Amino acid sequence: MPATDKMIAGYIPRQKVVVLGKDTQERDLWRSMVDGWEFQTFSFGDETICLDNLNTIDPDIVVLGSFDPERSYRFINTVKAMNSNIPILIVSSNQLIETFVSANCFEDVHFIKDARQLHEIKHMIRQSCKDETETDAAMKCPLIIGNSSAMVKIKSRITELGSTADPIMIKGEPGTGKDHLAKVIHLRSHRRADPLVRAWIPATPVARLAREVFGHDDAIAGPRERKKGIFETAGRGTIVLDGIEDLSTDLQGELLQFVERIFVTGHRSDRDPADIKIIVLTSPSIDHLVENGNFRKDLYYRLGVICLEIPPLRHRREDIPLLIDYFSDKFCLELGRGFFGAADSTKRKFLNHRWPGNVLELEDLVKRVIVLGNEEVLDRKIDSGNQAARTAAISPFSTDIHKLANLDDLKEHLKGLDTISLKKICGEFTAKAEKNIMKQALQTTNWNRRKAASLLSISYKSMLNKIKEYELVIRS
């Protein structure tokens, strides 16, 4: 609370406590107790009305009563999105809510199991109201939304990931939130006051990439006017390399030398940063590139000392309702709209959607609804997407696997062989299947190689290599 609001003509106003209680009896009990402790109380029975008034009240603390877990999750996330400095005290015996608070590593969200612990509740409110120091960057960092086991596991490692000096590799399909996770790791680390520098490799021309990453001497002025690369710019901060699978072979070699100087031998050059955090973002296709020799195995292991994989949204559908609520509240707040909840029928459609664009696609759809103020737009979009998915499921692209690998001629293939090499047979038929799949992907996209690569979740470079390897050409 600003100092000017605290003292007007010698009067010091009471500190403000917002109470959200489920029923009238609970709210009246809280109001009488908190007022008796010389706080100014504002009580609400509905989350939407409470959130609509939160910025106007500007409370010193919010007390959340015994709501069910889903409503509690949404309320906590939205309050933190609105103002990360507001402490929250939850009074509930629900173990799921306590686990949620613990998994998200909230530093100023407190949990008390028993409403009869009046002394502890009073102490917690007083202590939270006294602490008026500005919250640092760690508490202002973005939230990671999700209660699925995979996301809880990732969130539980954030502190560890921020404290280690080792490089981190984050894998995931486009739209899963790799860059978001990298930002959270940086802001929850001791480097949060230092720069977070990003480089998106696929968007940078190959001829310019090495200079932008490692720096270069000015062509005219020479070494005295050296242009710093992103590693030098980051200083003691964090460098995020996105799309690492698209690095050229030469640049892979340069990056390996740099990583080994920093993290292995310690033989740094004068231009190397003394202390830096490296986070690389990549698609799961990098594993295939390594296996095929198109990405250096030694560099892969140097960069992947710690490896995280964010699952696609279709593999963690239990997070979808929470994400819908979070993005709804986020965009209502940004656009100055009243908070609202999506209909249950809409949420069911979201749960059945394939989400090829993952969380980014979901966020875009929710924003479209908030901007247009029409939930039917979202319903139509989801319906058309689900129909497209059903059509794709019965398309020639999903041809029976036996036909893809030509397994019908397996018996003929084995005739006359004195010895059978399972490894050789598997290799031959896997190659046949891969070639047919690549060919069908190209035909499906009218031989647009970038679209075909995206369809197969592989890099563009890998697609070009496979086309060359299998001699795939357009037949007239």
CATH H level, superfamily name of the largest domain: P-loop containing nucleotide triphosphate hydrolases
CATH class wording of the largest domain = Alpha Beta
* Rounded average pLDDT: 79
How many strand segments? 12
Q: How much strand?
A: 5-15%
Distance between the termini: 73 Å
Please give the domain count.
4
In CATH, the topology of the largest domain is named Rossmann fold
Question: Percent of residues in helical segments?
Answer: 40-55%
What is the radius of gyration?
28 Å
Low-confidence stretches: 1-12, 390-402
Shape: globular
**CATH architecture annotation name of the largest domain:** 3-Layer(aba) Sandwich
Task: Please characterize this protein's 3D structure.
There is one protein chain. By secondary structure, the chain is an alpha/beta fold. The chain has four domains: 3-135, Response regulator (Rossmann fold); 149-309, Rossmann fold (3-Layer(aba) Sandwich), CATH 3.40.50.300; 313-393, Helicase, Ruva Protein, domain 3, CATH 1.10.8; 399-469, no CATH class. The protein is built from 24 helices and twelve strands. The strands form three sheets. It has a five-stranded parallel β-sheet with strand order 2-1-3-4-5, with helices on both faces. Strands 7-10-11-6-12 form a five-stranded parallel β-sheet. A two-stranded antiparallel ribbon has the order 8-9. Helix 4 (69-82) links the parallel strand 3 (61-64) and strand 4. Residues 1-12 and 390-402 have low confidence and may be disordered.
Structural features:
12% strand; Rossmann fold; 476 residues; alpha/beta; globular; Helicase, Ruva Protein, domain 3; 4 domains; disordered N terminus; single chain; 5-stranded parallel β-sheet
